[in-house]
Amino acid sequence: MTSELYIGSAGDRARAWSYQRDFWPGMIGYLVVLAAVGFWGNLDGHSPWRYLWAVLPALPALWIVRAVWRHIGRIDDYQRLLLLRGLAGGFAAAMITAMVVGLLDIAGLFATLPIGGWIIFGAGMTGWVVAGQIRWRR
Q1: If we measure between CA atoms, which residue out of 33, 22, 35, 31 comes closest to residue 63?
Q2: Higher-confidence residue: 12 or 54?
Q3: Transmembrane stretches, by residue range (predicted)?
Q4: Is the same domain home to 114 and 90?
Q5: How many angstroms separate the CA atoms of 7 and 13, rounded?
Q6: Backbone dihedral angles phi then psi of residue 84, each to the nearest 5 degrees
Q7: Per the structure, how many domains does the chain have?
């Protein structure tokens, strides 16, 4: 019963706030750059510049990686264990999905449906959330 009432110590809330301050600028930057790529990137054109435009959203995404890395360094051992177990679940889901997508690609499915990478990304993120929630509830 007390675990349902526990909302975290002042230190936990400060660490969570620090993570939010690190995470959201990267996420907002990612969304802004993604919108710019959508409007001006001409990704379906023939210019070699389209490859640069295509990878530009990865730059602000690196800021998000930095935020998660810093968060791992700030949290206590139990929170780190939960986070890393969730990440491990997401990694496992992404790898199994990558294998299945790769096999389906060999069979020719993704020649007509070029979204295999997004399926892998989505599986990894979903696996991270689901595994994290399962470990957190135990």
Answers
A1: 22
A2: 54
A3: 23-43, 49-69, 81-104, 110-131
A4: yes
A5: 9
A6: -70, -35
A7: 2
Segment 65-124, tens digit of pLDDT: 999 999 999 999 988 998 899 999 999 999 999 999 888 888 888 777 777 788 888 999
Handedness of CA 126, 102, 60, 83 (dihedral sign): positive
Identify whether residues 58 and 80 lie together within a single domain. no
Domain boundary among 41, 58, 75: 75
Same domain for 104 and 54, yes or no, is no
The C-alpha atoms of residue 87 and residue 132 are separated, in whole angstroms, by: 7
Q: Are 123 and 117 in contact (CB under 8 A)?
A: no
pTM listed for this prediction = 0.71
> What's the count of helices (H) and strands (E) in the chain, helices before strands?
7, 0
Confidence of residue 7 (pLDDT cuts 50, 70, 90): low
Whether residues 26 and 87 fall in one domain = no
The residue type of 135 is R
| Residue 4 confidence (pLDDT) | 56
For residues 51 and 32, give the distance between their C-alpha atoms in angstroms, rounded to a whole number: 18
Q: Which domain holds residue 30?
A: 1-75
